[in-house]
């Protein structure tokens, strides 16, 4: 009896403590940054780790418990640690005077052979003497780092052909991945590291069913996303690259002679992603290793900068002179979805280029639709019967679900031997093709829903297929529903260049306004992000489906993930050409030289609008990048780390919180305004009467006199004093004041621009004004 009571008490005790055990989660604890001297040693790093153990040990009442709890010590540039804690300890730790922030370790999401000719870096494969490529030595010896899913080292894009000499002497990194599947270094690929402790701790805290032993501890890319983005930024020349025979050309990155480093922070996505703790550790290593540019095609929902690991870690990189380029996200065309909105980050939207992969659809009645696909076409010129998913629904299946070609909704006897027509939405495009193939279809036509509009994607379907836009889809469905015996045919895909209009904004590209700092227009710029050809992992099929045994060294992908490394490649050229420029000067040069008109000389179109209306700065920021203009911008809006800290003060962040960004305690000035941050774009919300903003321009070109030209937003009169700025030497700075007065109609936004020009340079800044909250 006594034994039974003891057992009952024991199990009662387990029930009492189990909630505390279950409540343990992983956190990123930020203390600020380190001020290591030039002669930093491993002993210095060990001292930092020891201080972290002591700090956390004071809360856990044991240094040993602290050592067990901490799985990363950020010891190189970022000061802090990642640890597994219960909620109570995390809350108490956040109140400690030395602690700037305690952030939950949450996941972030992952968000070419012709791009560079489209942007005039070459013509018909020839690089003219005036090309930014030639002037910047093709990015020679610049080190571009990518935080992503890793790298496929066997890709020719990361081969060392044409790369001379060892890595730059400042380089402290290397290929530390020594696993059987490890990534070896060469003269091109000089760095490869992986970070997954944050991912693993998250899985443990969530009681995940993922088999941890199945996770391959390697920088090798088993997803393809990282290889694609890194090769877009800085892939070496690869002649005769194509995607299953389409788009044949020479693949190369924006800085083809740059060195590259892969930092793997993104892991299998069933219960994974790119975790804050791993991202922060990768930043700490990359800064210490000596990279010149950081590219991140990942992000999360927009949140306060003090709670955003990417914003905080990026600040530490920028503070060390390293530009950080991030994707804006793929949640467009919904407004207020822009992520990575911190003003020190160069944030990139996605737009099209003048190449399309056509897969024509031909109907018996003579109609022809220019669809898109990377699938094989039907053999022969035989017409096949057409059937919609709704017409082919199985038994008691819902008709709408069948039209969407969802699993187990199609009657195979009705589909077999026909071309199946499916509607886009709810399930993945590739899965619709898979369901069509399983049902016995000879081919599939995917029709856009109304929301998707004109945005079509060349997918790698398992059967012949074509993706057509909303308007063509309506014509096709009308034909099928009215014809007695509807018939059609799918022509094999072909690539076409010099299409018009281009660029247009991609429907998926996340839009502003910036919900964290409405006065800072985001994205900053847009770049090619649709149907981009670049390297891929040969460990996975193009569809990522288990039944697909195909592999390809190159693939087309779309997303702001693809546009981000285009800009990172351009930043690499500018780092080489102007090594003395700050990250904000480089950013300004790219923004103020960007273009807002397409190749028909009309305003850039918003592909997310059904009526193909002109795009706005909330879609493209300052415009589409223009490398030729960026290398010689004339003037730049420059900023220092302290300017950004004052911006945080003006945004309402207190001095304790700001310690997460600063080397030492920062004292906020008595008065400052977010409107006066020396940003290359100008946003004013809640305009009532008039408001004045100040800016300062630095001359980085030849002496000259610049005259101001103003494009007034609707309902607003803009004036500038002075109207002329005379520069006599490089580095000279001049200030001006811009006054905006008037009334923008309720719930409307006014768009304009301020342009400074000396007759040769054009320095353009968008102006966005509203009468209320954006």
TrEMBL record:
Q: Where is the PA domain?
A: 394-476
Top-rank taxon of the source lineage equals Eukaryota
What is one Pfam family matched by this protein? fn3_6
User: Where in the cell is the protein located?
Assistant: Secreted
* InterPro entries assigned to the protein according to its UniProt record, in alphabetical order: PA_dom_sf, PA_domain, Peptidase_S8/S53_dom, Peptidase_S8/S53_dom_sf, Peptidase_S8_Ser-AS, Peptidase_S8_subtilisin-rel, Peptidases_S8_3, S8pro/Inhibitor_I9
What residues does the Subtilisin-like protease fibronectin type-III domain cover?
676-769
Positions of the Inhibitor I9 domain: 26-107
Assign the protein's first listed, main location to one coarse class: secreted
Active-site feature positions: 148, 225, 561
Keywords of this protein's UniProt record, alphabetized?
A: Glycoprotein, Hydrolase, Protease, Secreted, Serine protease, Signal
Q: Where is the signal peptide?
A: 1-22
Indicate the segments forming the Peptidase S8/S53 domain, all copies. Answer: 139-598
In which family does this protein belong, per the annotation?
Belongs to the peptidase S8 family.
Q: Which PANTHER family match?
A: PROPROTEIN CONVERTASE SUBTILISIN/KEXIN (PTHR10795)
The name under which this protein is listed is Subtilisin-like protease SBT5.4
Q: Which organism is it from?
A: Cucumis melo
GN (gene name): LOC103502215
